[in-house]
Amino acid sequence: MDVETALSRLQAPSQLSILALSHPLLEPPTPKKRASDISENPDRTPSALQADLVHYQELFAKLRFSYVEQVTKERFLRAVTASPPEFVNGAQNAELEAELKEMKAGLKDKKAEVKAIVGELEEKGTELVSRYEGVELQIRQLESLPDEIVDLQTTIEELENAAQSDRLHPTKPELLMGLQPTLELLSSKETELADLDAKIAALQREQPEKQRIIAGLETELEPLRLRKEAAVKSANEAKRGKENGGLGDNLELQGRWLRGVEAGLKGMLEV
Predict the structure, then answer these.
(1) How far is 39 from 22, CA to CA, in rounded Å?
(2) From the record, what ranges are coiled-coil (predicted)?
């Protein structure tokens, strides 16, 4: 059986009515059906079935009342028109009352039994409604399966063509590796990544100490920078004095000495 045949069978209209549900238990109805019967509509739903049930309950209650009324009238007329007329004495009334009391007790038991059966039927109906809705959902899902299968087959063909093209013209050899080499490569990459993460974490832990050292060195270099500026200023003045014929040998010697001190400090501080 193919998918379309199965779906057509599931989508076939099913008659959901009280009369249809009662066919396996009761005698089949007469072939002639009334058009006004609300249960003969083939398009039924659980809510419509509940409406049918309420309708038949009301109808049976009316029929029961009519039956009791007709039987009472018939008995009264027979008693009046009989020849001789039927007369009932007190003993017969007492006997009838005892029989009626016994019948009422039996009727009460029957009502309790029917009530329990109706409760079980309601539970079973609720369960069947849930199952019916689940079947409808599955049918809708099955209807969408053929299109999804076609799309998946198209995707598989495209992937196979792409894989064949990669085999003929490999642009990334890593994609053509086997499972075990791929796992080994992945493990090595993860190890390298873990090492880099550890180094970054160590550098981040050392960063505050480095910043503190740099701040201290900058504080120590500030006086040297001021002395350098003063020495440069003195050297320039000595140079100008020498060019003007003055004696700036002492200032020149002092400038050389300061430049040497500056170079030594820079070498020691690595700045």
Answers:
(1) 11
(2) 93-162
